[in-house]
Batch of 2 targets.
Target 1
Amino acid sequence: MRARSGWRYRGNVALRTLAGTVGAYAVAALAAMLLARTLPMGRLEAVTVATMFSYLFAPAVSVWAFLARGPWVALGGVVLLSTLLAGLVWTSGGFA
């Protein structure tokens, strides 16, 4: 069994925690923005439904950050997903 007290292990946990918290928040917020802009219903209903669906994205990203093969894979995956969602939000009408 490997020792879990070195800087390498602490950095691993820190990067995964960063990806699982800040990254999950960013993905959930961008997913809510995208869904609110693209759902075919009234503005209030679209925002409500999009917000409820975004609550599913945050825990999924957090769990994935700790299940990923390595900390850089976790961080890279979250950044890639955030970039993809930000691009889709931008093409659907921009940030307002």
Note: Residues 26 and 82 are 7 Å apart (CA to CA).
Target 2
Amino acid sequence: MAGIHITDIENAINWWRDQRPSDDMITACAEVQALGEVYGLMVYYRETQCDFTSMPERARAAWLGWYGHTPDAPCIAICSTTQGDATCKGCGRSFEEVQAWPTMDPPAKRAVWRRITQEGTAWRFNRYAERARQASGTDHPDAGSLTPPPADAPDAATPPRG
């Protein structure tokens, strides 16, 4: 099983802070406290990932609460793996990741999301960024429900000039 990256813990903490702000501006909600304990230990021990299965139950439940509000799949309905590509040009996942997605656990999916976001080469991050913003987060959405890129949008294969 994949570990949970510290940035996902930070994102979950910030999401919960927005969802359940402190009335007195001092006391954090139970979810932030649970995730904060994990985050503090990760910082103290200089760890970038924590094991999902060994997280305290309250922290795991809080993380899953945040995870449930994130898009599940990076698919933007342009799957080039169906045309034989080893890596999808649309979302950046490998053929194996696309095939295994329905059975992957949340930490493994977040690890893939982290990798493709860091790489930033998939069309969802450049040529079809608008389409990605409209995507529902479901794997292989109906292409007709998404807007095509503008005619002057840069192509991922074309390096920027300058």
Note: The two ends are 43 Å apart (CA to CA).
